[in-house]
Amino acid sequence: MFGKNKRQPYKAISKQILATFAVIELFYLSKGVLILVFGALWFNTIEANLRSLVVTKNLLIAAFCVGGLMIISFLIASVGFFSPLKRKKFLYVHAFLIIISTFGLLALGANVWFKTLDERDQFNNKWSYWSQNTRAFFQDKLNCCGYNNSTDLVVPSKVCPKDTVLNDKVGCIDNITQTADRSSRQLFTSLFGFIIIDIFAFFSTIVFIQARNVEERYIKIDEKYGNSGDQALKRQYV
Percent of the chain, pLDDT > 90? Predict the structure, then answer.
């Protein structure tokens, strides 16, 4: 009885696959949390920071949706991770949600990038409907008055006092577009960079699914031919 070797079940889901999947998923979760945290911080300072030239309320709301989707996707993946043989559908849903979040990031980044193509005209329209407090804030921060020049829709502020000749002050058009262009490039570069994590998360999920499918297949073979004593690995073409 002690001379017989007990047949061990074939394991396709190796420790390396589990560890790689777990690490990449933690990066995926961190990305979602990072988007939500920065989104919340930026939302509280909207129109009170030079960043708000680019980061609008609509953009932040869309970012909240994408970040929230990533966290939900991670939670779904966790169910499949701890019980891959019984919860296969959770892994499939996770892979599908990764694709959606990737397109979400791509849409956010593309939206920011497209706005850099005509910033001068775009901010010309924005300047006219911004509140006086917002225009005054940008005038003081950028040390300029009005938009095209010191008489173009100028509002009273610390840098541009009321009833004062402001011939020595330039318009805000150049300062605004330069600041917005710099912020836009940083933002869409970060968003596009996040997509790299999505790509790794998607392929690690596919590898994980494939491994659990192989292991499930061998389990079924062992159940069918359990009394024969053969190793499941030798019957891979059955």
Answer: 37
